[in-house]
Design goal:
By secondary structure, the chain is mainly alpha-helical. The protein has 2 domains: 71 residues, no CATH class; 210 residues, MetI-like fold, CATH 1.10.3720. Helices cover 73% and strands 0% of the residues. Helix 4 crosses helix 15, helix 9 runs antiparallel to helix 12 and helix 12 packs antiparallel against helix 15. The longest helix is centred in the C-terminal third of the chain and has 36 residues. The chain is flat and about 70 Å long. It is a multi-pass membrane protein.
Length: 301
Protein backbone atom coordinates (compact mmCIF):
# COMPACT_ATOMS: atom_id res chain seq x y z
CA UNK A 1 0.00 0.00 0.00
CA UNK A 2 2.84 2.38 0.82
CA UNK A 3 4.51 1.66 -2.53
CA UNK A 4 1.29 2.42 -4.37
CA UNK A 5 0.95 5.78 -2.66
CA UNK A 6 4.50 6.87 -3.50
CA UNK A 7 4.79 9.68 -6.09
CA UNK A 8 6.22 8.76 -9.52
CA UNK A 9 9.97 9.04 -9.91
CA UNK A 10 11.75 11.37 -12.35
CA UNK A 11 12.27 8.55 -14.81
CA UNK A 12 8.56 7.68 -14.81
CA UNK A 13 7.67 11.34 -15.23
CA UNK A 14 10.05 11.61 -18.19
CA UNK A 15 8.59 8.53 -19.83
CA UNK A 16 5.03 9.79 -19.34
CA UNK A 17 5.98 13.25 -20.62
CA UNK A 18 7.65 11.75 -23.72
CA UNK A 19 4.64 9.54 -24.44
CA UNK A 20 2.30 12.50 -24.03
CA UNK A 21 4.38 14.57 -26.43
CA UNK A 22 4.41 11.80 -29.00
CA UNK A 23 0.62 11.49 -28.78
CA UNK A 24 0.20 15.25 -29.24
CA UNK A 25 2.62 15.25 -32.18
CA UNK A 26 0.80 12.30 -33.77
CA UNK A 27 -2.56 14.06 -33.39
CA UNK A 28 -1.06 17.26 -34.81
CA UNK A 29 0.15 15.39 -37.89
CA UNK A 30 -3.24 13.84 -38.60
CA UNK A 31 -4.91 15.68 -41.50
CA UNK A 32 -8.19 17.42 -40.92
CA UNK A 33 -11.24 16.91 -43.11
CA UNK A 34 -10.35 19.87 -45.30
CA UNK A 35 -6.74 18.69 -45.41
CA UNK A 36 -7.79 15.31 -46.80
CA UNK A 37 -9.97 16.96 -49.41
CA UNK A 38 -7.20 19.36 -50.44
CA UNK A 39 -4.70 16.51 -50.67
CA UNK A 40 -6.93 14.42 -52.91
CA UNK A 41 -7.74 17.42 -55.11
CA UNK A 42 -4.04 18.23 -55.51
CA UNK A 43 -3.13 14.61 -56.26
CA UNK A 44 -6.00 14.33 -58.77
CA UNK A 45 -4.88 17.49 -60.59
CA UNK A 46 -1.27 16.29 -60.64
CA UNK A 47 -2.36 12.88 -61.95
CA UNK A 48 -4.47 14.41 -64.72
CA UNK A 49 -1.64 16.72 -65.80
CA UNK A 50 0.79 13.80 -65.86
CA UNK A 51 -1.58 11.56 -67.82
CA UNK A 52 -2.69 14.21 -70.34
CA UNK A 53 0.35 13.98 -72.70
CA UNK A 54 -0.11 10.21 -73.04
CA UNK A 55 -3.82 10.65 -73.66
CA UNK A 56 -3.19 13.28 -76.32
CA UNK A 57 -0.54 11.09 -77.99
CA UNK A 58 -2.89 8.10 -78.25
CA UNK A 59 -5.94 10.10 -79.39
CA UNK A 60 -4.07 12.11 -82.03
CA UNK A 61 -2.43 8.94 -83.37
CA UNK A 62 -5.93 7.61 -84.08
CA UNK A 63 -6.87 10.61 -86.25
CA UNK A 64 -4.69 10.54 -89.39
CA UNK A 65 -5.02 13.21 -92.04
CA UNK A 66 -6.80 15.69 -89.76
CA UNK A 67 -5.74 19.19 -88.86
CA UNK A 68 -5.04 19.38 -85.14
CA UNK A 69 -7.50 21.77 -83.53
CA UNK A 70 -7.61 22.01 -79.77
CA UNK A 71 -9.63 21.00 -77.92
CA UNK A 72 -11.81 19.41 -80.63
CA UNK A 73 -9.11 17.02 -81.86
CA UNK A 74 -8.76 15.53 -78.38
CA UNK A 75 -12.22 13.98 -78.44
CA UNK A 76 -11.82 10.18 -78.36
CA UNK A 77 -15.18 9.49 -80.06
CA UNK A 78 -14.80 11.22 -83.44
CA UNK A 79 -13.15 9.98 -86.64
CA UNK A 80 -11.18 7.12 -85.08
CA UNK A 81 -8.91 5.25 -87.51
CA UNK A 82 -5.96 2.85 -87.21
CA UNK A 83 -4.49 3.93 -90.54
CA UNK A 84 -1.47 5.54 -88.86
CA UNK A 85 -0.60 2.29 -87.09
CA UNK A 86 -0.89 0.39 -90.38
CA UNK A 87 1.50 2.88 -92.00
CA UNK A 88 3.95 2.56 -89.14
CA UNK A 89 3.93 -1.24 -89.03
CA UNK A 90 4.00 -1.76 -92.82
CA UNK A 91 5.44 1.34 -94.46
CA UNK A 92 8.32 1.98 -92.08
CA UNK A 93 11.09 -0.22 -90.71
CA UNK A 94 9.68 0.08 -87.21
CA UNK A 95 9.69 -3.67 -86.58
CA UNK A 96 13.41 -3.75 -87.35
CA UNK A 97 13.98 -0.74 -85.09
CA UNK A 98 11.93 -2.46 -82.40
CA UNK A 99 14.08 -5.57 -82.68
CA UNK A 100 17.28 -3.50 -82.43
CA UNK A 101 15.96 -1.72 -79.37
CA UNK A 102 14.97 -4.98 -77.70
CA UNK A 103 18.41 -6.47 -78.33
CA UNK A 104 20.12 -3.31 -77.09
CA UNK A 105 17.95 -3.08 -73.97
CA UNK A 106 17.62 -6.73 -72.95
CA UNK A 107 21.25 -7.71 -73.50
CA UNK A 108 22.37 -4.59 -71.66
CA UNK A 109 20.01 -5.33 -68.75
CA UNK A 110 21.31 -8.89 -68.32
CA UNK A 111 24.97 -7.88 -68.62
CA UNK A 112 24.67 -4.80 -66.37
CA UNK A 113 22.79 -6.71 -63.66
CA UNK A 114 25.27 -9.58 -63.65
CA UNK A 115 28.39 -7.39 -63.66
CA UNK A 116 27.03 -4.89 -61.13
CA UNK A 117 25.94 -7.72 -58.80
CA UNK A 118 29.45 -9.24 -59.00
CA UNK A 119 31.08 -5.90 -58.30
CA UNK A 120 28.56 -5.01 -55.58
CA UNK A 121 29.18 -8.33 -53.81
CA UNK A 122 32.94 -7.81 -53.95
CA UNK A 123 32.77 -4.24 -52.65
CA UNK A 124 30.23 -5.12 -49.93
CA UNK A 125 31.47 -8.43 -48.52
CA UNK A 126 35.04 -9.04 -49.67
CA UNK A 127 38.23 -7.62 -48.19
CA UNK A 128 41.08 -6.66 -50.46
CA UNK A 129 43.69 -3.95 -50.63
CA UNK A 130 42.52 -0.64 -52.05
CA UNK A 131 38.83 -1.56 -51.95
CA UNK A 132 37.58 1.81 -50.72
CA UNK A 133 39.81 3.80 -53.06
CA UNK A 134 38.74 1.66 -56.00
CA UNK A 135 35.06 1.92 -55.11
CA UNK A 136 34.97 5.68 -54.65
CA UNK A 137 37.09 6.21 -57.76
CA UNK A 138 34.64 4.12 -59.75
CA UNK A 139 31.69 5.94 -58.19
CA UNK A 140 33.23 9.26 -59.21
CA UNK A 141 32.29 8.33 -62.79
CA UNK A 142 28.74 9.37 -61.90
CA UNK A 143 29.90 12.99 -61.70
CA UNK A 144 31.45 12.87 -65.20
CA UNK A 145 28.87 13.85 -67.84
CA UNK A 146 28.38 11.30 -70.59
CA UNK A 147 28.94 13.98 -73.24
CA UNK A 148 32.52 14.47 -71.99
CA UNK A 149 33.44 10.86 -72.78
CA UNK A 150 31.31 10.59 -75.91
CA UNK A 151 34.00 11.46 -78.47
CA UNK A 152 36.78 9.31 -76.91
CA UNK A 153 34.33 6.39 -76.63
CA UNK A 154 33.31 6.72 -80.27
CA UNK A 155 36.95 6.91 -81.41
CA UNK A 156 37.73 3.77 -79.41
CA UNK A 157 34.74 1.90 -80.82
CA UNK A 158 35.61 3.04 -84.36
CA UNK A 159 39.20 1.82 -84.02
CA UNK A 160 37.90 -1.53 -82.76
CA UNK A 161 35.44 -1.82 -85.65
CA UNK A 162 32.33 -1.41 -83.52
CA UNK A 163 30.56 1.23 -85.62
CA UNK A 164 27.15 0.08 -86.88
CA UNK A 165 27.34 -3.16 -84.86
CA UNK A 166 25.41 -4.53 -81.91
CA UNK A 167 28.44 -5.04 -79.70
CA UNK A 168 29.62 -1.50 -80.39
CA UNK A 169 26.17 -0.27 -79.36
CA UNK A 170 26.06 -2.32 -76.14
CA UNK A 171 29.63 -2.50 -74.83
CA UNK A 172 30.17 1.12 -73.63
CA UNK A 173 27.08 1.01 -71.39
CA UNK A 174 28.06 -2.06 -69.35
CA UNK A 175 30.22 -0.24 -66.78
CA UNK A 176 27.38 1.37 -64.82
CA UNK A 177 28.56 3.08 -61.62
CA UNK A 178 25.04 3.76 -60.36
CA UNK A 179 24.13 0.08 -60.67
CA UNK A 180 27.25 -0.99 -58.77
CA UNK A 181 26.50 1.51 -56.01
CA UNK A 182 22.89 0.30 -55.58
CA UNK A 183 23.95 -3.35 -55.53
CA UNK A 184 26.67 -2.66 -52.95
CA UNK A 185 24.23 -0.79 -50.71
CA UNK A 186 21.72 -3.64 -50.85
CA UNK A 187 24.22 -6.49 -50.37
CA UNK A 188 25.77 -4.71 -47.38
CA UNK A 189 22.50 -5.24 -45.52
CA UNK A 190 22.61 -9.03 -45.98
CA UNK A 191 23.73 -10.90 -42.82
CA UNK A 192 27.34 -12.11 -42.86
CA UNK A 193 26.28 -15.32 -41.08
CA UNK A 194 24.76 -16.62 -44.33
CA UNK A 195 28.06 -16.38 -46.16
CA UNK A 196 30.08 -17.78 -43.26
CA UNK A 197 27.73 -20.79 -42.98
CA UNK A 198 28.02 -21.40 -46.73
CA UNK A 199 31.83 -21.30 -46.56
CA UNK A 200 31.83 -23.73 -43.64
CA UNK A 201 29.72 -26.10 -45.76
CA UNK A 202 32.38 -25.90 -48.46
CA UNK A 203 30.71 -23.58 -50.94
CA UNK A 204 32.97 -21.56 -53.19
CA UNK A 205 32.61 -17.83 -53.79
CA UNK A 206 30.93 -18.18 -57.16
CA UNK A 207 28.46 -20.73 -55.77
CA UNK A 208 27.70 -18.38 -52.87
CA UNK A 209 27.08 -15.61 -55.37
CA UNK A 210 24.75 -17.69 -57.52
CA UNK A 211 22.80 -19.52 -54.80
CA UNK A 212 22.71 -16.96 -51.98
CA UNK A 213 23.40 -13.44 -53.22
CA UNK A 214 21.35 -13.44 -56.42
CA UNK A 215 18.17 -15.02 -54.91
CA UNK A 216 18.24 -12.55 -52.01
CA UNK A 217 18.75 -9.64 -54.40
CA UNK A 218 15.63 -10.25 -56.50
CA UNK A 219 13.87 -7.01 -55.40
CA UNK A 220 16.83 -4.74 -56.13
CA UNK A 221 17.63 -6.65 -59.34
CA UNK A 222 14.07 -6.11 -60.57
CA UNK A 223 14.21 -2.42 -59.64
CA UNK A 224 17.58 -1.91 -61.25
CA UNK A 225 16.53 -3.95 -64.26
CA UNK A 226 13.58 -1.64 -64.90
CA UNK A 227 15.80 1.44 -64.60
CA UNK A 228 18.48 0.03 -66.90
CA UNK A 229 15.83 -1.08 -69.38
CA UNK A 230 14.34 2.43 -69.42
CA UNK A 231 17.76 4.04 -69.81
CA UNK A 232 18.59 1.95 -72.85
CA UNK A 233 15.10 1.93 -74.36
CA UNK A 234 14.96 5.74 -74.29
CA UNK A 235 18.62 6.26 -75.18
CA UNK A 236 19.02 8.48 -78.21
CA UNK A 237 22.45 10.10 -78.45
CA UNK A 238 24.73 7.04 -78.42
CA UNK A 239 22.59 4.96 -80.84
CA UNK A 240 22.40 8.00 -83.13
CA UNK A 241 26.19 8.28 -83.24
CA UNK A 242 27.18 4.60 -83.43
CA UNK A 243 24.49 3.52 -85.96
CA UNK A 244 25.12 4.57 -89.53
CA UNK A 245 22.54 2.56 -91.48
CA UNK A 246 18.77 2.56 -91.23
CA UNK A 247 18.84 -1.15 -90.41
CA UNK A 248 20.76 -0.47 -87.16
CA UNK A 249 18.53 2.36 -85.90
CA UNK A 250 16.79 1.99 -82.57
CA UNK A 251 13.22 3.19 -82.04
CA UNK A 252 14.21 6.61 -80.72
CA UNK A 253 16.55 7.27 -83.65
CA UNK A 254 14.16 5.78 -86.20
CA UNK A 255 11.14 7.77 -85.03
CA UNK A 256 13.26 10.91 -85.01
CA UNK A 257 14.34 10.20 -88.59
CA UNK A 258 10.67 10.25 -89.67
CA UNK A 259 10.66 14.02 -89.21
CA UNK A 260 13.09 14.32 -92.12
CA UNK A 261 10.71 12.33 -94.34
CA UNK A 262 7.73 14.69 -93.84
CA UNK A 263 5.75 11.89 -92.21
CA UNK A 264 2.34 12.97 -90.82
CA UNK A 265 2.09 13.75 -87.14
CA UNK A 266 -0.33 10.89 -86.51
CA UNK A 267 2.19 8.40 -87.90
CA UNK A 268 4.95 9.69 -85.64
CA UNK A 269 2.64 9.54 -82.63
CA UNK A 270 1.62 5.99 -83.54
CA UNK A 271 5.30 5.05 -83.58
CA UNK A 272 5.70 6.62 -80.16
CA UNK A 273 2.76 4.59 -78.82
CA UNK A 274 4.33 1.40 -80.16
CA UNK A 275 7.61 2.35 -78.47
CA UNK A 276 5.81 3.02 -75.18
CA UNK A 277 3.97 -0.31 -74.89
CA UNK A 278 6.98 -2.53 -73.99
CA UNK A 279 8.02 -0.11 -71.23
CA UNK A 280 4.52 -0.12 -69.80
CA UNK A 281 4.30 -3.92 -69.87
CA UNK A 282 7.75 -4.32 -68.29
CA UNK A 283 6.81 -2.07 -65.40
CA UNK A 284 3.51 -3.89 -64.84
CA UNK A 285 5.32 -7.22 -64.63
CA UNK A 286 8.00 -6.02 -62.18
CA UNK A 287 5.96 -3.46 -60.23
CA UNK A 288 5.90 -5.46 -56.98
CA UNK A 289 9.65 -6.07 -57.06
CA UNK A 290 10.31 -2.41 -57.87
CA UNK A 291 8.43 -1.28 -54.77
CA UNK A 292 10.19 -3.84 -52.57
CA UNK A 293 13.57 -2.93 -54.00
CA UNK A 294 13.14 0.82 -53.49
CA UNK A 295 11.94 0.30 -49.90
CA UNK A 296 14.67 -2.22 -49.09
CA UNK A 297 17.45 -0.08 -50.54
CA UNK A 298 16.23 2.95 -48.60
CA UNK A 299 16.20 1.04 -45.32
CA UNK A 300 19.47 -0.83 -45.74
CA UNK A 301 21.43 1.94 -47.39
Amino acid sequence: MTALLQPPTRTENAVQTGASRRRRAYRALQPTGWGIVARWVWLSVAGILSFFPFYAMVVLSLKPGMVVELPGSLSPFQDISFEAYEQVLTGQNILGWLGNTLIYSLVSVVAVLFLSALAGYAFAKKRFRGKEVMFWSFLAMVMVPFHVTLIPTFILMANLGGVDTYWGLILPSLANAQAVFLMRQFIQGLPDELFEAARIDGAGEFRIFLQIVLPLCKPILATLGIFVFLWHWNDFLWPLIIAKSNAMFTLTVGISSLQQQNVPLSTMLAGSVVALLPIFLAYLIAQRYVQEGVAGTGIKG
